[in-house]
C-alpha cells in the first residue's frame, strides 16, 4: 500500500496539491466540510498513488527535507533547527507607508519584486484573494499585481490547478509557499521536466501551522458577520500605537460593505498557541524554516523587534542571487536589515520549536502507543525530553484543535456561534491557565521590551 493512502486515511493530508499536479489532475484535490483541502484517492490507479507518494510531504516514499536540501544546497552550512543557511537577517523595507500593506517587514514581496525587475522570473505563483473561496494560489505577472497581493493568508490553499494552468507556457516563476508546499513542489519538479524548467525560485514562509477556512469565519462571526456574509478579511492589520504582535483582524460584511476590526488576541482563538482550526497534518510537521526553499521569511519574534509596530522579518537565504538582492537592497537604502547569527534566528521561533519538535515527539509517542500509523519524521517519538506538565499541555492543545473543527461545524449547522464559543472557550481558558508565565518571566519580558523601546527612541532622535 502506498503511504499516501495512509496520509489521507488518517486525516494527515495538508491539501497542498502536489499529488494532483504530479498526476496531471488524476488525483483530484477537494474541499472538505471542515474548510480545508484533501486529496481524493477514490478510483485512483496504483501507479498514480505511487507518483503521489513520491511528492507527498507526509508520505514515507518522498524525500525528506534533509535529503532535498543536501542536493540543493550541498555547499552550505547546516543547523538542525533551521536547515542549511547562507545569509541570516532581521529587518524590513524602509518605506513606512508601504509597510502597512505587508504582514511583517515586507521583505517577501520586496524580494519577489526584485526577482521580476531583474528578469530572473516572469511572474510569481503565490496566495492571494480569489472569488471563491476567499484566498487561493494565483499568478502575478507584474509588480503591480504582485504588490496588490501582500500579507499572510492564514487560509488553506492548493497549488494543483494553478500549476497545471501555467505548465508549458514557457514562462519562469518564483513559487511561494509554506514549508510543506515547498517540499512538495521541489518533489513535483523532480517528476516533471517541464515544470522543472519553469520554477526558478522556491520562496518559503515560516509556518507555525495552517488554519482551516473556519479560522477566518470564526473571527468574522465574532465581529457580527455570519460565515455566509463575509466578503473579505485582513488577518494582519497594523496599529502604529501598539507592538507588532498586537495586530488586528478585520472583515467586511457583504450585506453592508461595512468593515469591522478587533485586536486578534482579544478574539476567542486569537492566540496562535491555542491552535484553533489547526490542520491535523501540522501535528506531524518538523520543518519550521522551509528548509528546502531558496529563501525563507518569517516574523522576528524577539523583544528587540517585536516592539516596532511596522513588523520585522527574520530571513534565511540559501541562494546567492537572493542573498545579493538583499545586500544590494541594504546598500541602496530600500531595506534596513541587521545581520543575525544562527542562535538568534532560531530564537525568533521559540513557540514553534516547542510545538513542532518537543510536541511532535510526544504526539508520535502517543500515536505509537495507540497503534496509529504516523509518517516517518526526523524527530524520534518519546517523552523523555519534557516533564509531565508539558506532556499534558501538548495533549490539551491537540484536543483544542480537534474540537474547534467539530464545534464550529455544529455552530454553522445550528446557525449559532455560541455553540462553538461555549465549547471551546473553557478549553482555551484552562489551557491558558496552565501556560501562564511566572511573575519573574513576565517582568523580565516587559523589562526587555521597555529597554528596546528606549534604544529605539534614542536611535530615532540621533
Ligand atoms: C499559515 C501561515 C503561518 C505562519 N506562521 C508563522 C510563524 O509561526 N512564525 C513566523 O515567524 N511567521 C509565520 N508566518 C509568516 C508570516 O506571517 C509572514 O507571512 C512572513 O513573515 C512574511 O511577511 P512579509 O511582510 O515579508 O510578507 P508580505 O510582503 O506581506 O507578502 C506576503 C507574501 O506571501 C504570500 N503568501 C501569503 N500567505 C501565503 C500562503 N498561505 N501560502 C503561500 N504564499 C502566501 C503572499 O502572496 C505574498 O506574496 C506564517 C504565514 C502563514 C501563511
Ligand atoms: S501531496 Fe499534498 S494533497 Fe496530495 S496527499 Fe500529500 S499532502 Fe495531500
Ligand atoms: S505546519 Fe507544516 S504541515 Fe502545517 S502548513 Fe505549516 S509547513 Fe505545512
Question: Mind explaining what this structure looks like?
Answer:
- It is a single chain.
- By secondary structure, the protein is of the alpha+beta class.
- It has one domain.
- It is 42% helix and 17% strand.
- It contains 17 helices and 15 strands.
- The strands form four sheets. It has an eight-stranded mixed beta sheet, sandwiched between helices. A three-stranded antiparallel beta sheet has the order 10-11-12, covered by helices on one side.
- Helix 15 packs antiparallel against helix 16.
- The longest helix is centred in the C-terminal third of the chain and has 26 residues, at 388-413.
- The radius of gyration is 21 Å and the shape is globular.
- The relative contact order is 0.14.
- The structure holds flavin-adenine dinucleotide and iron/sulfur cluster (SF4) (2 copies).
- One iron/sulfur cluster is lined by residues 4, 7-8, 13-19, 29, 39, 52, 55-58, 184.
Write the layout of secondary structure elements.
Layout: H1 3-9, H2 18-22, E1 29-31, E2 37-39, H3 46-55, H4 65-72, E3 77-79, E4 83-85, E5 87-93, H5 107-117, E6 123-129, E7 135-140, H6 143-147, H7 160-166, E8 173-177, H8 179-191, H9 193-198, E9 199-205, H10 214-222, E10 230-237, E11 248-253, E12 259-263, E13 295-299, H11 303-306, E14 313-317, H12 320-332, E15 335-339, H13 342-347, H14 350-370, H15 388-413, H16 417-435, H17 439-461
Parallel strand pairs: 6-8, 8-9, 9-13
Antiparallel strand pairs: 1-2, 3-4, 5-14, 5-15, 6-7, 10-11, 11-12, 13-14
The chain binds flavin-adenine dinucleotide and iron/sulfur cluster (SF4) (2 copies).
Residues 4, 7-8, 13-19, 29, 39, 52, 55-58, 184 line the site of one iron/sulfur cluster.
Domain Coenzyme F420 hydrogenase/dehydrogenase beta subunit N-terminal: 88-163
GO molecular function: oxidoreductase activity, acting on CH or CH2 groups, with an iron-sulfur protein as acceptor
Domain Coenzyme F420 hydrogenase/dehydrogenase beta subunit C-terminal: 171-338
